[in-house]
Amino acid sequence: MWNTGTYVKIVMVGVIAVLSILTGRIIITLGVFSHYYQHYPGPCRRVEGIQPGSENFQTLPNGLTFITSGFRLQKMSSSVDKHFQEKNVKGRIYLFDFNKSESGVKELRIASTATFNADNFYPHGISVWEDKKSGRHTVFAVNHPKKELIADSIEKFEYDPEKQELIHQQTYQSQEAMRVVNDVQATGTNSFYFTNYQYFPGHPGDLMEILFELTWTNVVYFDGETYRVVAGDMKSPNGIAMSNDHKYIYIAPCLGQEIRVFKRNTDNSLELQQVFPLHTIPDNVAVDPVTGDLYTGCHPLGWKILLHLAEPEKLSPSQVLHLHVKDGNITSAQELLYDDGSLITASTSAMVYNRKLLVGSVFHNLIICDVHVPI
Fold first, then answer.
1. Which of 124, 144, 299, 322 is catalytic?
2. Is the Cβ–Cβ distance between 125 and 142 less than 8 Å?
3. Which letter does DSSP use for residue 341 in this model?
4. Which among 331, 347, 329 is positioned nearest to 284, based on CA atoms?
5. Listed residue (69, 60, 75, 70) closest to 127, CA to CA
C-alpha cells in the first residue's frame, strides 16, 4: 500500500513535468534561442508624412492602400501612454498610393458625429469593401476606445475620394461577441468576419492565455443582424483576410505560429482546409489583389515583441514572409525581409505591389522597399 507521502511525490512529479513541458513550449514560441540574419529585397526607406505606427492596411487592385495608425489597447503600460504623448500619436487612417510612392501618405479626415467621437478612435484592423457597380468604398476598422468599460467596436465609414475623408456610418458593438478584437474582414457593406485574439482584456488574464496556451478565442461572423462563432480552437487568431474570389478565409493564429486556411461555405460558416506552419509569430495577413498570394508581417523573436509592447523604445526585429498560394492552399513560404529593428521595429503588415514592398509596424516606422529578388 502506498502512503500519503508517496501520493504527494507522484503529484509533485506530475506537476513538475507539466510545468517543464509548458516552459519548453513557451521558450520555443518566444524564440528565446532563435537566430536570424539581416537581409532586404532591395533598397528600403521610410515613408514620410505618417506618425509612428502603421499597424494594419489593405491594398486595393488599383494600388490605393488604407492604413490604420494609433493602435493601442485599453489597458497598456505607462510607457505606451508616454510614447503617445511625446509623439502626439492619435487615432488616424492614412491613404497611400503605390503608384505615387514618392508622395508619402495622406491623412484622411474623420469627423465626429452625434454617435461617434473621433477623439476616442484608436484603430487596429481594417478592411475595405469595394462595390464594383457604384465604385464606392466602405471601410471597416476595429476600434479600442481609450475609456475603460467601453467594449471594443468595429466602425464603418464611407470613403469620399473627392474630399479625402471618411464619413462615419455605423458602430458595431457586442459585449458578448467582441472580447479583444484584432482584425476584420468585410464581406459586404453590412457584414464581416472578425477575430478575437484575447479572451481577457489586459493583464494578468492575457499573460495566463500565453502561459497555458489557452484556445478560448475565436472568429465571429456578423451577417447584418446576428453574431455567431464560425471558428475556434486557435491560439490567439490575429490577422484575417479573404481570397480574391471570396472562396477562402485566411487566419493567422499568432501564438500558434501558423496560417489556417478555411473554405468559406454558402452560409458563411468556415471549414478548415489547411494548417500551414510558419515557425514565427504572424501578425496580419494580406492577400495580393493581383496574384492572390499572401504577405504577412511577423515577429520572429516573441520575447522581444512582448518587451516592445510594454516599452515602445525597446527594439523588436521585423520579418516579412511571402506565401505562395495555389487553389486556395499555401504551397510554400519565402522570407522577403529581416531587420533587427533598427530600420523598422515590430513589423505587422506587408504587401508587394508593382515590385515595391510596403511594411507597417506597431509603434514604429512605415517603410517601402524596392523588390529586386524573384517572388
1. 124
2. yes
3. S
4. 347
5. 60
Write out the three cell numbers for 157.
465609414
C-alpha cell at 23: 516552459
Residue 282 β-bridge partners: 298
Q: For residue 76, what pLDDT band results from cuts at 50, 70 and 90?
A: confident
> Which helix (DSSP H) or strand (DSSP E) does residue 25 occupy?
helix 4-29
Average pLDDT, the chain: 91
Euclidean distance between CA atoms 198 and 21, whole angstroms: 23
CA gap 169, 154 in Å, rounded: 11
- Whole-number pLDDT of residue 37: 81
Report phi then psi at 118, rounded to 5.
Answer: -65, -25
Cell numbers linked to 55: 499597424
DSSP 94-123: EEEEGGGGGG-EEEPEE---SS--GGG--E
What confidence score (pLDDT) does residue 216 get?
A: 83
Chain mean position to CA 228:
21
C-alpha to C-alpha distance for 240 and 185, rounded to whole angstroms:
6
Range in 101-115, 194-208, 313-327 with the lowest mean pLDDT: 194-208
For residue 130 the three cell numbers come to: 469595394
Q: Is 124 a catalytic residue?
A: yes
State the pLDDT at residue 19.
54
323 φ/ψ angles, rounded to the nearest 5 degrees: -105, 115
The DSSP line for 254-305 is: TTTTEEEEEEEPTTS-EEEEEEEE-SSEEEEEEE-TTT--EEEEEES-HHHH
CB 51 within 8 A of CB 87: yes
The DSSP H or E segment spanning 318 is: strand 318-326
Q: Select the more confidently predicted residue: 87 or 17.
A: 87
Q: At what angle do helices 78-86 and 302-310 cross, to 10 degrees?
A: 70
Mean pLDDT of the 335-345 span: 98
Query: What phi-psi label fits residue 233: left (phi over 0), alpha (psi between -120 and 50 degrees) or beta?
Result: left
Residue 154 backbone phi and psi in degrees, to 5: -120, 125
* Residue 289, number of CB atoms within 10 A of its CB: 16
- Which class for 280: exposed (0-12), middle (13-18), buried (19 or more C-beta within 10 A)? buried
Q: Which of 136, 252, 143, 247 is nearest to 187 (CA)?
A: 247
